[in-house]
Design goal:
Elements (H helix, E strand, L loop, with lengths): L7 E3 L7 E2 L3 E6 L3 E3 L4 E8 L4 E5 L6 E16 L2 E14 L3 E5 L3 E4 L2 E4 L3 E6 L10 E2 L4 E2 L4 H6 L2 E2 L5 H8 E7 L3 E3 L4 E9 L2 E8 L6 E5 L9 E5 L2 E15 L3 E5 L3 E11 L9 H9 L5 E11 L3 E6 L15 E9 L3 E2 L5 E11 L15 E3 L3 E7 L6 E12 L3 E5 L3 E6 L4 E6 L3 E5 L9 H6 L9 H23 L6
Length: 490
């Protein structure tokens, strides 16, 4: 049977963790497949002390292509440590339809337990999507050959341990580009690529000075992948993936990440030669028929630093209102209400849509016409930082008031940005807006509003309070003076 060797990676140094609860789950890599596709089912036991008597279901409606394939490992999500063991099978459906796979049974911590049932929908189409070999635990299609990976688990007589580790365990830094403009993002991905059974933890985090840094992956949502390096397939775990926005021109070096790796082998006492395949060798070792002893080696590996050259934005053609925006954008403005009464707050919204260094863009400059008083904007963002450049919108809400009635024209607002694809500056302008300030309740004295200081829109009317405070102060002094005036006897 195939024995799958999987990796444990700690994405950072953790102060401590909690142990997760016992579970026995049936997992599918795909719930819907074509009639010619393969489906993989995994029976995973988490956080068990003892496991015995595992019995797989009969897989009615399927032909077993491979299995059982053994897995084991650990994961830490949000500080919770999960230890797991499992068996998986690659199946081929015999006919279209909805097929139920019954749960497996096992004696876990002395108690007979059954995992959940799962349903596979098999369509009449030849294939739902392209498939390769499957990585059971993570639901990944894994082209790594089982025999090829398992062979790395064994140390043959005379093999160099440091060389074997360095050829099969690689820490690397990939970048989307090495040259960019100020404000143009670079995607940097720190990876652990492994063909070995190892436990790894970060001992030195990279310094990313000179950039605004935005993480693109959440540790609890990431799935491992497979990558071909030097002609061999590796299981790849992302340590960190970020997009970097350079703050100013210059040459910068992205630091290396450093990992301490504990690698486990089985050292064979005799050379296996060609007497059996690796599958048979693994089976014999697990049954105690091959002499060998476990070995553990600790090695520290690091990625190579990468140099980034950041170009200055061109001076030629730079608009006067340019304020550092880089990307591709659209721009518009609107009034939440077309008409208000004097001293009532209106709101002009300026909306910036597109992709680029959105979080770093400042509010646009607004020239308020005579008779209107504008205030600093309230900024809201709705962006997706898992894509590069960052995509979404940024909304600037400007409050404004008018003391007198009338028709006010709000001039257009301009915005300029640099487009790194076109290598040119571009300028946008919103349409002008008309605000009507008409006579209303706000023109008349209102004792309740004056005392509470509230506007009709629910906000606090600071202008009323400003004028009311001196009057109240004078009245209070008058009352005190009257009370303290001595009574003259007549």
């Amino acid at each position: 049977m195939y024995r799958k060797i999987l990796i444990l990676i700690f994405a950072g140094l953790l102060p401590g963790w909690l142990s997760a609860q016992l579970s026995f789950s049936t997992l599918l890599n795909e719930a819907s497949v074509g009639k010619d596709d393969y489906v993989q089912v995994s029976f995973v036991i988490a956080n068990a002390k003892t496991i015995s008597g595992f019995v797989a279901p009969n897989f009615k409606g399927f032909s077993v292509v491979s299995g059982p394939n053994l897995q084991s490992g650990m994961s830490i999500v949000n500080g919770v440590l999960t230890k797991y063991e499992g068996k998986s099978y690659v199946l081929k459906p015999n006919a279209p339809g909805r097929i139920t796979i019954q749960g497996a049974t096992a004696v876990i911590d002395g108690k007979k337990t059954q995992s959940n049932n799962v349903v596979v929908t098999v369509s009449d189409q030849p294939s739902g999507q392209p498939q390769g070999n499957l990585n059971p635990l993570f639901g990944q299609r894994d082209p790594v050959d089982d025999d090829e990976v398992n062979e790395e688990y064994f140390l043959k007589p005379g093999e160099s341990i440091p060389l074997k580790i360095r050829e099969n365990l690689i820490v690397k830094l990939d970048v989307s580009k090495t040259t960019c403009y100020e404000g143009e993002p670079i995607v940097a991905t720190y990876k652990l690529c492994s063909r070995l059974k190892s436990e790894s933890k970060v001992t030195k985090r990279p310094s990313l000075g000179g950039f605004s840094v935005y993480d693109m992956l959440q540790p609890d949502t990431y799935q491992p992948s497979v990558e071909k390096i030097n002609g061999k397939f590796f299981n790849v775990h992302v340590i960190r993936k970020v997009q970097l926005y350079p703050i100013q021109a210059g040459t910068y070096e992205l630091d290396a990440v450093e990992l301490e790796n504990t690698v486990r082998f089985v050292k064979l006492e005799i050379e296996p030669g060609n007497r059996s395949g690796m599958e048979q060798l693994l089976q014999e070792y697990m049954n105690g028929m091959v002499e060998g002893k476990p070995e553990e080696h600790v090695i520290t590996l690091s990625s190579k630093p990468v140099t980034i050259k950041v170009l200055p934005l061109p001076e030629e053609g730079r608009p006067a209102d340019f304020d550092g925006a880089v990307g591709s954008f659209s721009f518009k403005s609107s009034l939440l209400r077309q008409s208000v009464t004097p001293n009532e707050t209106a709101t002009m919204q300026v909306e910036l849509n597109g992709e680029g260094n959105l979080p770093l863009i400042n509010e646009p400059s607004v020239k308020w016409p005579s008779g209107l008083e504008g205030f600093q904007s309230r900024v809201t963002e709705n962006t997706d930082k898992t894509v590069s450049p960052i995509r979404g919108l940024k909304l600037f809400s400007f409050p404004l008031t008018a003391a007198k009635t009338g028709l006010y024209t709000l001039p257009s607002v301009s915005f300029s940005y640099f487009d790194p694809k076109a290598k040119a500056y571009k300028s946008l302008k919103t349409d002008s807006l008309t605000l009507i300030v008409k006579p209303g309740v706000a023109n008349k004295p209102n004792i309740l509003k004056a005392l509470t200081g509230k506007r009709e829109d629910g906000g606090f009317n600071w202008s009323i309070l400003f004028w009311l405070l001196p009057v109240l102060a004078v009245a209070a002094l008058g009352i005190v003076f009257v009370k303290k005036k001595p009574v003259v006897a007549r």
